Amino acid sequence: MTAAETAELEKIRQEVDEMVKPWEGKPGNLIMVLHAIQNRYSYVPRKISFEVAKRLDVPLAQIYEVITFYNYFKLEAPGEHIVSVCMGTACYLKGAPALIQELKNELGVEPGQTTSDKKFYVQMVRCLGCCGLAPVLTVGHKVYSGVKPEQVRGILAEYTQPQTN
Fold first, then answer.
1. Phi–psi pair at 49, nearest 5 degrees
2. Are 48 and 99 within one domain?
3. Is 0.85 topped by the overall pTM?
């Protein structure tokens, strides 16, 4: 193993230790540790999964069972901007499916996929809790309410155009 590989492995071990410590010895700790990993990296990196398996003394297969069972966890890094379309009842009835279709048209990806330039990741979510603002789309933490399909291109442009001051 090279010095760089050894240093990377040590860094991974330290990060895993940080995320495992608060949950050590507690029932159901695997899912909580995976949440911490997902929150830190936006996905669960393979190298991290190996270290978690060692640290918690659980089979790697069990980790992947949890990751693949829950929709929240991702195995690949999402795009720079996460676009979420609320599919709760109010949003669905007020046009969320048309927003998904427009995102497919504009970005060329299905929900659960990242654009080839790694700029956008599109996902459908159950509810964003903004029912009175339906239909709702978020990009990162910014909420767009009452969105119509013809507005999608402009919303995406906010994240692709160079910022001017």
1. -60, -40
2. no
3. no
